[in-house]
Write a structure and sequence with these properties.
The structure is a homotetramer of 131-residue chains.
Chain A: E1 2-5, E2 10-13, E3 19-33, E4 38-52, H1 53-62, E5 68-81, E6 86-99, E7 104-110, H2 119-129
Parallel strand pairs in A: 4-6
Antiparallel strand pairs in A: 1-3, 1-5, 2-3, 3-4, 5-6
Chain lengths: 131, 131, 131, 131
């Protein structure tokens, strides 16, 4: 999925030491409008993108509001109800995330990792984050 | 798709003025090995990733051999035969491409675009490139 | 996306003659739980799946509540507000849909089509359907 | 991925009792041709689709040459060399597969399963199949 970072990324570390970064993403598909005979923006889908661990740390330092990024991850559609209001949240738990080079250039600095992030562990990270 | 840039990106401009950048990408899935009780690399799939126009220009200046990137695009599986040898090439025509922030940080500089790249036009770009 | 058809599909034809079929889909990812050393159901995501034209006609006659299906299409995340209540609807406009043969067998009868459904036209179908 | 079943599916059971079904699939993207002002077939990608266990059994009884199907699974791009000739095979190991209801109707009969197919086990199935 590609889109525009619509809010300044928020970064925090839980009591258990888990880094989390999240922001709102506006993703829209281009569609060909025959009447105008050109490509136009289709509808915009809004998502909350959340990342954990090393990806959260690197995103916090690299991603800004207004950037165009690509995200891959797990979609979570959740119904919530806090007594006063109810709604549906649509989140993407990012497995990968990066700037879309269609829109600019980047200077990349590699982080030395001892171990690559594990998708399954990210699921339990999410559960930790909910505490 | 995510993977490791395995060759130094090559950049050229065709006689018609079309910028093209391409490189080989090694993409592998992680899988959980129950015997070892940990995540290990699955098989590696090799692709030639090709980009055009603004994405080609930005990729040439930003992507290096050894970088970890994400790519989204169209898969092209082509059988070829040049008389002496025959084979199958597996290419990805990139619509988007960027560094995977799981593996490092990036400083992003936006290019001022007059017009966003159009997917359909990229198809005809490919045809131009074949001349 | 794969999942379980959770409601009996509803079928209708608009005043303009557009066939529409829709139903609720429960899609969950399997994840490996190390503690139990086996695969378990992850979270369930709920979607409203909508199809148009020939796909709607065929789905209405073939898909039942309780079936396991596969869907490919466009995700639409929409915020709505009708004065009294507000919420977010998560819909999939299906481009393709069919029974998942992991779960059973099927006898397939081909419909004679004069013309294949066009993705772009489905966008304008959606707009017609909203009237 | 969607496409046309181009060969009669072949079904066999290995010495270890593993059911396997495979066939060739022709998948092409539709693209909008501005010159003709209509949607036309883009390039065709050819894949060998392979399924295992319950999916293989059900596919063998349900899928015929000429059917239009949807497939989801893992892409495997492999270089091979048998001494005389060398080439690249492009395979999809199907996790799900079914008839595309854009093209017809189906009567679905559910198989009673004791246990849902596990993706990770399919990886080791592939290894077993290679013996």
């Amino acid at each position: 999925m590609s889109g525009l970072v619509a809010t300044t990324p928020r970064h925090l570390v839980t009591q258990d030491g888990l880094p989390i970064t999240s922001f709102r993403l506006a993703a829209s598909h281009r569609r060909f409008d025959r009447a105008q005979n050109k490509w136009v923006d289709g509808e915009t889908n809004w998502f909350t993108v959340t990342s954990f661990r090393q990806l959260a740390i690197n995103s916090a330092g690299s991603v800004s509001k207004g950037d165009r990024i690509m995200v891959a991850g797990k979609l979570r559609v959740r119904d919530w109800d806090n007594g006063e209001r109810a709604g549906t949240s649509v989140e993407v738990e990012a497995d990968s995330l990066g700037h879309d080079l269609c829109w600019g250039s980047s200077v990349f600095t590699r982080t030395v990792l001892t171990r690559e992030p594990e998708p399954e562990e990210e699921v339990s990270d999410k559960e930790l984050a909910a505490k």
